Each structure stands twice: as structure tokens, then as C-alpha cells.
Amino acid sequence: MTIDIARLMRPRSIVIVGISPESTSAGFLMLKNLEEYKYPGDIHLVSRNRDEIAGRACVKTIDDLPDGVDAAMLLIPRVAIEDAVKACARKKIGGIIIFAAGFGEAGPEWKIVQDRIATIAEDAGIALCGPNCLGLVDFVHRIPLTFSAQLGTPIDVKAGVVVVAQSGGLAGVVRVGLRARDIPVTCWVSTGNEAVLGLEDYVGYLLEDPTTQVVAAFAEQIRKPQKFIEVAARARELGKPIVLLHAGRSAAAQESARSHTGAMVGDYAVVQTILAHHAVVHVETLEELIDVCELMLRFPVPPTKGCAMVTDSGAVKGMTLDLCDALGLDLPPLSPALEAILQKELPEFVGASNPLDLTAQAITHLDMYEKTIAPILADDAYGSVVLTAIISSASEFALVKGRAGLKPMIGAKKPVIYAMLGDEAEVPAQLIPEVRAANVPFFRSPERAFRALARITAYGRALEKARHRVVPPRLMAPPLKAHGTLAEYAGKDYLASCGLSVPKGGLVTTLTEANSLASEIGFPVAIKIQSSALAHKSDAGGVILRIADNAQLAAAWEKLQQIARDRALALDGILVEQMSRPGIEMIVGARRDPQWGPVLAVGLGGIWAEALADIRILPVGLDVAAIEDELRKLRGAKLLAGMRGSPPVDVKALAKAVALIGAVMEARPEIKEIDINPLMVFAAGDGAMALDALIVTE
Questions:
Q1: How many CB atoms lie within 10 A of CB 601?
Q2: Mean pLDDT across the stretch 616-623?
Q3: Tens digit of pLDDT for each residue in 13-53?
Q4: Which residues of 487-522 are buried (b: 16+ CB within 10 A; e: fewer)?
Q5: CA dihedral in degrees (22, 25, 30, 32; nearest 10)?
Q6: Calpha distance 88→153 (Å, rounded)
Q7: Is 352 helix (H, G, I), strand (E, B) or coil?
Q8: In the CATH scheme, what architecture does the domain 504-578 have?
């Protein structure tokens, strides 16, 4: 049946199942929240032992309720949950929140129970939240469906942040962190084990709410990746960023997620790549999640250009240059016109630059802040501005200085940040409210400020790329003739039929055929043992290179035959190929992630592969120009550009090969993996060639 999530998120009537009169009990605390929020709908109570609680009538069982209550809050032990869900289905209840823990995260036995509960709910069209969650609160519509205390008062705002997290505790932390910065949180949801509804469902619903401007999300696993991608596309369309903190970078974190919410964590690098491609703001720390959400709410149009920084310390200027370089946040140089304007306001011994050092002279000439920050803000070369001021004096002067720095930032249309150094040094109590009232984020850490700016600038650029993305035409790849692990010759034949360049050569089964083919294609040649049972031939000595004549070919032939006999291999034959001319060795691979679908990997091959582990993970579907941009982000990209007299290599041909492999993966869903190692890339204009290839199919 169709699930109507609105019956859970905006219920016109609710029932608390398992309420008791004790003031510290979960059911009583939930009722207290509802009454304090003046919840506008009907409230029903189910209690086995009480006819009345807090002046409200109770019924004994769910079956005693009227039909069609919108949402049920199950505050009962886990052993009673399954029967309660069945009763809710009989009474046509539209939504359920299961707070009890100890289901999928507790092991296989209780995962089976959780799955049965999910099936009951789905068959009845019930929007089920949890289990193992803290519920949800809509602060705008006065719907506190949780027993958590100290929620704060309901709010009346036009735009705010919604918090959706698989961890109830972290959902609360993000909420209070944002509210401490005067950022309105309009709704928060603790999704728990996500037996039926997942993070994607809640975010998709909340995006359509006019009060939602930014989504703050925490996930240990995105359980419905394709749905999440659709939601991300809708978020881009609406101009409402999704800021996501995704746990699971380390093996230890992945194990923790399994024990926490029963998540099966995917490959972190794959998730990171796919999300960036779809313009989801992927942050790495809780602090970043809060910082970025604040910037996104205060400045809904993200910057696409670099940052300008103004300070009153030369040391901070140098530190900023180092930090922004590490973050990939560019600090564009001043134009001659802007440099001339700023130079007039500086001491003659200080040159105008970005970052801009006002020196200690700003202490006695407070008007320097306005005279320098205002023209920088007006310059379209900069997408954001940071003022980093030092607290090194009494609070009274700090207040005067702070206001002088704030004045030119008031009303700015582009992101501006007021960052003060001094760790926990005292800040005048009046200053922070004044700064935030002027819609200027206040940071005590310039490093956090720049990290957040780097994220939103990358997001702005990702949006631009998404708007102008050219979707390559779909490749009409032929069906494969074999399945399983294909021997190299079969994999190369297939990829060549799709358009990939491979060496001259072919499969032979006798030495006579090998001699004839080698003479035809020309020495030197390479010969390789061919068997689907031996995917990694080099490790077994099954590849012999630079064979110069027929005598060497005969010796090499016998060596490969002996390897086959020793390993009892069923040989398809021996692959004889012309030796490649020199070039840069690259690795190009693709695999089908079980959750996210096909992804690509490209990096330096040969000795560089192990020495540098220099790999870019890419989504399929990028055009050649976008792949070239990604190749330039490799740490060893200078090798592709030519070094120490070596010519630049054919980066476009390399990008075309990568795009082709991605297109093959999209066209043939039965392919699980493609590995080309190496792909030899020649001098600019001379193309690229797959010297080895492995294809694995279902």
C-alpha cells in the first residue's frame, strides 16, 4: 500500500501507547511536551492499568481506539511491539514511532523481528519511524512527538534548518548547537534503524515545506541510495542545500555503525564521490555540520568565487595562506584598481594584498576597517570575506574595535564572517548578539570559518557544474559472449568492440601460430598465459615481455606451458601482442557498488600506483572535459603535463578511455568490474592503449 508520510509528520490525532502516571516515565514526558506545545490535534491514551492520567481518559488497548488515528507512539517494551503494530494496522493508524531499541542492531534474531514488523507496516501503508529512535519534533506546527525534555519553545519563522539524523542523541546536539547561534531549527527527526522510512524519505518530505531552507543530516548508512539521489536533485532544484555528516570512514566506525543502528556501511570513498557529484555538502565533523548550516541559512546563495581576508596581524595572514592552500579555498589576488584603493589606507611600509594586513595601525585608526572591507565586498572577484580580528586588549576596547569591524559587513549580500582569535579570551557580551543580529556569523576559530567557507564554495561550484552538466549519449555496448571472470584476450576483444584501443595481436594455441602472428605484427612482442582461472597472470610469472625473435619466443612459450602444467590450468591459449611504445602508465578501473551502482577509479600506474596510491574516484556519466578536470587533481598530475623534458601526454585520450569504461558499465549491468592496468598514455595527440584488461560479470 502507499505510505502517506504526512500522517506521521503532521498528525491531526495521536495516541500514546504505554503511558503511565509517573512524572519521569517516557509516556508522561511525551504528554507533557504535547501540552506545553499546545499540540492542536486530538490526543488519545492507552494504558492497561489506568482509566485516567493527567485528567485525560485512557483506553485499555489499541483495539479500543477509534479507527483512523493518524499516529501512534509506542512506548512499550520491544517484546510487545510486533503485536502492537498488528493492532495499529487493524485500526488503520497511519503512522507509528517505535522508541524501543534492541532490534536490528541487536543481532540476527531481532533483525528478523524488525523485518516482520516492517512488512506488517508496509502492507498496511503505515509510515513507521524507528525502531531505536527518539521520535520527531515539528517546532513550527507544534508537534513534539518525543519524550525528550528541554526542547525549547515552538517558533514562528519563514526559514530555518531541519535536522534529520539516524542518531537521536546527535540530532539533539545539532539542534541545540544551531539554536545557540540563533539559527532556527524548524524540525528534527531521529530516524533510528529505519525499518520502513529512511533518512531519504524524511528529507524528501521536509524539502517541500516552505519553512525548510537547509537540511542538516547525519547518516551511518544511506539505505536507499537511488532515492537519496532523487531527493538531492530536488534539493538542487529548490535551492535548499543538504549538509551531510556521514560516519564510516574507518573500519572501526563501520563496525560501530553495525552495532548502533544495524547499518551496513558502504565504501566511504564511493559515497563521498557520488554525493559531491550530486551537490550534497559532505562534511567530516560535527562542528563543520553546524558551521556550514549556519552559513547556508544566513546566505542562501552559495559563493562560486574565492575568499578575501582582512586581519590586523601579519602572522595570521601567513597562517591563513597555509590553511586555505590545504583546504583548496582560493584567495584571489587583488586587481590593480582594488590594490590602489586599499594601498591608500595602509602604512607606506605595508603592501596591499589578499589576505590584507591592516597592521596594528588599525587599533588607532578604526576607520581603516570600513575603508578597506567595503571596497573588497563590492569587488565581484570575491565570493566571500572573512574578518579575523585579534583580542589582545580590555573588553571595552574590544567592543569598540569589534563594532568598527562589523559596520562595513552589515547588509552584505555575499557570505561574510567575523572571526576572532584568542581562544577562550573574553569577548564583550554585547558584541556577539550585535554581530548575529546583523546576519553576520561569529566564529571564535578562524580555522573553522575557513573550513566552512571552503565547503560552501565547493557546493556553489558543484551547483554550477550540475546546471551545465552535459550528459554523454548512452553507449550501445554489445552483449558479452562469456560470463564470470573473462580472460584478458576476451576482455580486450570486448572493450575493443566498444571503441577502446588495444595492442595488435591475438590468441594462439600452438607455437607455430605464435611465430606466424609475431612475424606479422612485428617483434618485439609480449606473450601472456590465458585462462579465466588465472586473473592475475604477472604474479604467477604468466607474462613475458620484450621477446625479440623466434628463438626467445620458443623459450618463453615453453615456460608458459610449464606454468600451466604446474597449476593444472585449463588454457584458452596464449595471447601474443606487439610491445607498446613508451608512455605514462595509468590504472583505470570500474566496479559496481552494491548500493550506489557503478563508479570509476583512475590513477597513476606502474611503480607510482603503490608508491603514491594516487587515485581519483569518479561517478560514471561525466563528460570528457569534466574527467580532464578531475585528472588534473591527481597528486601526480605534473607527470601528465610533462616533466624534465618529457612531452605532455594525451590527457584527452585518457579521459575518453575513462568515459568509455563508465559508459560500458552503464550499458551492461551484468558487468561487476573492469580493471585496465596499465592503460598506456602516449604523447599528446598519440592516444592511449589498454595493455591489460580484466572484466568480471555476474
A1: 19
A2: 91
A3: 999 999 999 999 999 999 999 999 999 999 999 999 999 99
A4: bbbbbbbbbeebebbbbebbbbeebeebbebbeeee
A5: 30
A6: 31
A7: coil
A8: 2-Layer Sandwich (3.30)
Report the alpha-carbon distance of residue 18 to residue 634 in Å, rounded: 58
Specify the DSSP element, H or E, that contains 507.
Answer: strand 505-508
User: Which candidate, 537, 532, 542, places its Cα nearest to that of 571?
Assistant: 532
Instruction: Give the cell for residue 276.
Output: 559531491
Tell me: pLDDT of 591 over 60.
yes
Q: Where are the alpha helices (DSSP H) in 581-643?
A: 607-612, 624-631, 637-641
Q: What is the mean pLDDT of the chain?
A: 92
C-alpha 562/C-alpha 82 separation (Å) is 64
The C-alpha cell at 76 is 512499550
Asked whether the predicted pLDDT for residue 645 surpasses 50, the reply is yes
Confidence grade of residue 257 (pLDDT, cut at 50, 70, 90): very low
Compute φ and ψ for 111, nearest 5 degrees.
-65, -35
Please, how many CA atoms are within 13 Å of residue 339, restricted to the half-sphere of its CB?
10
The class (CATH top level) of 584-697 is alpha beta
Q: Are 100 and 128 in contact (CB under 8 A)?
A: no
Q: What is the DSSP letter of 106?
A: G
Query: In a 3-state reduction of DSSP, which class is residue 254?
Result: helix
pLDDT of amino acid 610: 64
Residues 6+ apart with CB under 8 A from 419: 386, 387, 388, 389, 442, 443, 444, 445, 446, 449
DSSP string, 559-572: HHHHHHHHHT----
Bridge-partner residues for 95, per DSSP? 71, 127
Report the pLDDT value the prediction gives residue 263, as an integer from 0 to 100: 45
Sign of CA dihedral 512, 518, 519, 520: positive
Tell me 604's DSSP state: E
Residue type at position 121: A
**Residue 250 banded pLDDT, cuts 50, 70, 90:** low
Question: CA of 311: how far to CAs of 378, 406, 452, 662, in Å?
Answer: 18, 13, 18, 47
Do domains 1-136 and 299-468 share one topology? The answer is yes
Domain ranges within the chain, ordered by starting residue: 1-136, 299-468, 504-578, 584-697
Burial of 35-46, coded b for 16+ CB within 10 Å and e otherwise, reads: eebebebeebbb
Alpha-carbon separation of residue 286 from 423, 448, 567 (angstroms): 19, 11, 54
Please name the helix (run of DSSP H) or strand (run of DSSP E) that holds residue 212, with its range, or none: strand 212-219
The answer to whether 292 and 452 have CB atoms below 8 angstroms apart is yes
How far is it, in rounded angstroms, from Cα 599 to Cα 592? 6
Residue 259 has a pLDDT of 46
CA nearest to 462, candidates 331, 304, 237, 615: 304
CATH H-level superfamily of 299-468:
Succinyl-CoA synthetase domains (3.40.50.261)
What is the pTM (predicted TM-score) of this model? 0.88
Rg of the chain over all Cα atoms, to the nearest angstrom: 31
CATH class of 1-136: alpha beta
Q: State the residue for C-alpha cell 572591507.
A: 373
CA dist 55 and 390 (Å) reads 58
Counts of helices then strands in the chain (DSSP H, E) = 24, 30
Provide mean pLDDT across the span 548-567. Answer: 96
The 10s digit of each residue's pLDDT in 462-516 is: 999 888 887 778 898 999 988 899 999 999 999 999 999 999 999 999 999 999 9
- Cα–Cα distance for residue pair 348/339, rounded to 1 Å: 13
Q: Are 619 and 600 in contact (CB under 8 A)?
A: yes
d(CA 636, CA 286): 32
Burial of 365 (0-12, 13-18, 19+ CB in 10 A): middle
Count of alpha carbons within 13 angstroms of residue 427, beta-carbon side? 20
Instruction: Round to whole Å and give the CA distance between 634 and 615.
Output: 7
Taking every pair of C-alpha atoms in the chain, what is the biggest distance, in angstroms? Answer: 101
| H/E segment holding residue 98 | strand 95-98
